Each structure stands twice: as structure tokens, then as C-alpha cells.
Automatic annotation (TrEMBL):
Keywords from the named record: 4Fe-4S, Cytoplasm, Iron, Iron-sulfur, Metal-binding, S-adenosyl-L-methionine, Transferase, tRNA processing
Record-annotated MTTase N-terminal domain positions: 1-105
One Pfam family cited in the UniProt record for this chain: Radical_SAM
Quaternary structure note: Monomer.
The organism of origin for this protein: Crossiella cryophila
Main location: cytoplasm
EC number: 2.8.4.3
Gene: miaB
Domain Radical SAM core: 128-358
GO molecular function, one term: metal ion binding
Highest taxon above the source species: Bacteria
Name of the featured protein: tRNA-2-methylthio-N(6)-dimethylallyladenosine synthase
């Protein structure tokens, strides 16, 4: 969500006439902060401190801070770092160009934080990072109250976009060569709650299935509490919906789930996994797990290990619980000692790593379709492989020899056979079985990235293809 907001910020800035800096000497630096990660504030103030000499040397330079941490800390940011020019929150990212202008004109810092959403972020222009794959927000905010999570207090209640607007944005992206979209919401399964349509998400998946040229549809994140069978049926019956599910478990203990205020229980979670496996036997199921939540006993933790063993996740994002100020869990009794959490965490990792590896070994011999990506294979130069994602989301490193139409570009599609299932990825060292050049690959080769001009009132508008631009050096963007 945060990365996609950064694309909106980049689009807004371009529309306001700013040009992406080609090196570190930017006149404006925008931090889009996230409060979910640990130590987000230390990292922000560290980064701001490092920028201070550049700002002192160039008084015309402007620094803006937005996102969740800005929403949380508000005026505190300019108190702790008075060389910051603009602070804006999660509800008014569209105000950034105006606030920069006002700060320049008035020669004083501008802090503007709103309590509710001013404009749905998708109504703002976006400069996309990838030529072949795009994020599309279907909702923002969350109506749940998980006790470890700061999101509801910073992003507000769930706001759903109308299906027509979402589909118009997807069509606009496909018209610009995008092959794959990921539908984004804090809880995609409650999509439609605002306009009273319980089956809205499954209908949206099916509608995406009718969009000509859209090859892959993914979504994140579902919530086990609201996951309904019509979504599983839509996943199975819509050919361009990928056989992949990232469904946060958080804990396998009913007692811990209760104290996390996550209103499903382990047996419900497992029953969804069973149904998905029945409907989509090759689906890759991944998850998020928190170890060491306050009050977690050894028996509770064993419950998590049991659900992990039964679910056979392809991979899992595992986290050691740590307090987030402002959340109910931060003040709960029974915070666990670090060494207990660490020891459990290591046991969980060992179990999950073994499952991941076993499942990847089972992929050996399978033919996979891979959309070629950029920057996902750190060792590609040494191994002379290229990398990309299979339909189920697995990372595949492949030998780019065999059936090749001219050259292979990011965004092109190849098929190849898996020769080795490594612990965290698949290797395909045989010759390619096919290579399809795509418009996304053409756009990548020409240095063009999709730009959507914002979608309002169901009417799509299309951004002109960008001219080739030099490689960007970060400015905004943090997960
Ligand atoms: S479902 Fe829970 S963890 Fe996810 S955003 Fe909402 S409150 Fe946070």
C-alpha cells in the first residue's frame, strides 16, 4: 500500500512539473513513511539527519515527510527536525505539491494532517515503477481492531472504491501494456461492506477475468474472518486469477488470536486452506506469523507450529512480536522475554524452511510460465541466469538459452522446466521452451513506464507514454 502511495506521489510531482532527479543531488526529497515496521521513527530521524548537510549547503532544497509515521507524529517531526519543510498525512497525499509551494512562498514549514480521507488516492495520477505489473487499490483503511496493529488509527475506517472505477483503472493499465495487476486492500474480503454488497470481491475477480490482455490477477491481503466460498470459486473459475494466496495466520492458538482480537480460530483458518487446495490443487499459499505475542505460552506456540505443519505454506513472513506505541498490545501484561521469543522464532523458521524446501523440490520437472522481472536475481550476472515470477508467485531463476525471439526483456513471458527446487526459489537450467515478446517488454526497452492520470467518476483518463528517462535514484518510497 505504501509503495503504491509512493507511485501516486511520483505521479503528482510529475504532473506539477517536477522532474525525477538523475542523481543524489535532488532539490526535493520526499519520505513516504511506514509505521508498521519496527524502529520506523529512528530510521526516519536518522535519514533526516543525514540530509541536513545537503540542506544547509542548498537552502532552496525542500524536504517533505508523509505517510503513516507523519500521520502519527504530526508536528513532532518539525520540532525534532526543524529543517523539514512539509509534513503531510495519509489522508491528504494529494496536497503535497501545494504544501511545497506554500512552504516556499511563506518561508516556513507546513504541517497538514487530516482526520479523514480527502481524495481517494486512486483519483490521483500515478507514475508506475514497473512496465509489466501494477498495484490497484480497491479499498483503503480497515474496520478491524487487531491489538498489535497501528493501521486503523492511521488509515481510518475502510473506504471502498466503486467496481467501475477499479475496472477502469485496470483497463487503462492494460492499455499501457501492463500484464499483471495486484488488487490491494487491508482486507480485500470485506470489500463491498461500504456499499452493502457481500459478494463484491468475488464479482470483481470475475470481472477482471473478462479484461482482454490482462494475464495475471493477484490480491493482497485477505482476512480469514471474512473469507467466503464465493471468492474461492471465483479464484478457481477465473483463468487469469493466479493460483496464489497470501493469507495472514498471525497465530495458530485460539487464545492468542482472541487476545489479538482476530475473530477467526485455527480450525476456520485450516478449513479455508483445505477448500483452496481442493479448488486449486497447485496454489502456493503463503502467510504472516507473529511469534511471542504477549501472553503466548509454549502450548500456544505449539498451536502455531501445528497449523504451520498442517497448512504446508510455500513460504511465511515471520516476525518476532515487538511493541508498537499506540496499540493496545503494547500495554498488555505478560510481554515475553526476548530470549523466549527468539528461541520460538528459530524453531518456527526451522520448520517452515523445511516445508518450503520440500514443496520446492516437488516442483522439479514442472513446466512453469515466467514473467521476466528486473532486479530479482542478485546472482544473475554470475550465474548467467535471468529471473522472474511463475504464476503461483514463486521466484524462478532460468537459463535464457533455447527458444528466444531476439532478446529477452523484463515483462516478456517465457516457459521453462524446473530442474531444481532450492530452499527459497526454483532453478530452471534447461533450455527455454518458449519466449513471447510483450508490449510490456517493448515499453521496458524504450524506457517507458505506465502512467495513469487518476480515475474519477468511473471515467478513465490515460497518461501520455513517458519519454525515456535516466535511471532514478530513490527519493520517496519505503515499505
Ligand atoms: S486486519 Fe488487523 S492487521 Fe490487518 S490492517 Fe486491519 S487491524 Fe491491521
Amino acid at each position: 500500500m505504501n509503495v503504491h502511495d509512493s507511485e501516486r506521489l511520483a505521479g503528482l510531482m510529475e504532473d506539477a512539473g517536477y522532474v525525477r532527479a538523475a542523481d543524489d543531488n535532488a532539490d526535493i526529497v520526499v519520505f513516504n513513511t511506514c509505521a508498521v515496521r519496527e524502529n520506523a521513527d529512528n530510521r526516519l530521524y536518522g535519514n533526516l539527519g543525514r540530509l541536513r548537510p545537503a540542506k544547509d549547503a542548498n537552502p532552496g532544497m525542500q524536504i517533505a515527510v508523509g505517510g503513516c509515521l507523519a500521520q502519527k507524529d504530526r508536528g513532532e517531526i518539525v520540532k525534532r527536525a526543524p529543517w523539514v519543510d512539509v509534513v503531510f498525512g495519509t489522508h491528504n497525499i494529494g496536497s503535497l505539491p501545494v504544501l511545497l509551494e506554500r512552504a516556499r512562498h511563506n518561508a516556513e514549514a507546513q504541517v497538514e494532517i487530516l482526520e479523514s480521507l480527502e481524495t481517494f488516492p486512486s483519483a490521483l495520477p500515478a507514475r508506475r515503477d514497473s512496465a509489466h505489473s501494477a498495484w490497484v487499490s480497491i479499498s483503503v483503511g480497515c474496520n478491524n481492531t487487531c491489538t498489535f496493529c497501528i493501521v486503523p488509527s492511521l488509515r481510518g475506517k475502510e473506504k471502498d472504491r466503486r467496481p467501475g472505477e477499479i475496472l477502469a483503472e485496470v483497463e487503462a493499465l492494460v492499455a499501457e501494456g501492463v500484464l499483471e495487476v495486484t488488487l490491494l486492500g487491508q482486507n480485500v474480503n470485506s470489500y463491498g461492506v461500504e456499499f452493502g454488497q457481500r459478494t463484491a470481491f468475488s464479482e470483481l475477480l470475475r470481472a477482471c477475468g473478462k479484461i482482454e490482455g490482462l494475464e495475471r490477477v493477484r490480491f493482497t491481503s485477505p482476512h480469514p474472518k471474512d473469507f467466503t466460498d464465493d471468492v474461492i470459486a471465483a479464484m478457481a473459475e477465473t483463468p487469469n486469477v493466479c493460483p496464489q494466496l497470501h493469507m495472514p495466520l498471525q497465530s495458530g492458538s485460539d487464545q492468542v488470536l482472541k487476545s489479538m482480537r482476530r475473530s477467526y480460530r485455527a480450525d476456520r483458518y485450516l478449513s479455508i486452506v483445505d477448500k483452496v487446495r481442493t479448488a486449486l490443487p497447485h496454489a502456493a499459499i503463503t502467510t504472516d506469523i507473529i511469534v511471542g505475542f504477549p501472553g503466548e505460552t509454549e502450548q500456544d506456540f505449539q498451536g502455531t507450529l501445528d497449523v504451520v505443519a498442517a497448512s504446508r505454506f510455500t513460504s511465511a513472513y515471520t516476525f518476532q512480536y515487538s511493541k508498537r506505541p499506540g496499540t493496545p498490545a503494547a500495554t498488555m501484561d505478560d510481554q515475553l522475554p526476548k530470549q523466549v521469543v527468539q528461541e520460538r522464532y528459530e524453531r518456527l523458521i526451522a520448520l517452515q524452511e523445511q516445508i518450503s524446501w520440500d514443496l520446492n523440490r516437488e516442483q522439479e520437472g514442472r513446466v512453469v510460465e515466467v514473467v521476466v522481472s528486473e532486479g530479482e536475481g542478485r546472482k544473475d550476472t554470475a550465474t548467467r541466469r535471468l529471473s522472474g515470477r511463475a504464476r503461483d508467485g514463486r521466484l524462478v531463476h532460468f537459463n535464457p538459452a533455447g527458444v528466444v525471439d531476439q532478446e529477452i526483456r523484463p515483462g516478456d513471458v517465457v516457459t521453462t522446466q524446473v530442474t531444481y527446487g532450492a530452499p527459497h526459489n526454483l532453478i530452471a537450467d534447461g533450455e527455454l521452451l518458449s519466449h513471447r515478446r510483450t508490449r510490456a517488454g517493448d515499453n521496458w526497452a524504450a524506457g517507458r513506464k505506465p502512467k495513469t492520470s487518476g480515475v474519477t467518476l468511473g471515467l478513465p483518463s490515460f497518461g501520455a507514454p513517458a519519454t525515456p528517462e535516466p535511471a532514478a535514484v530513490g527519493g520517496c518510497g519505503s515499505r
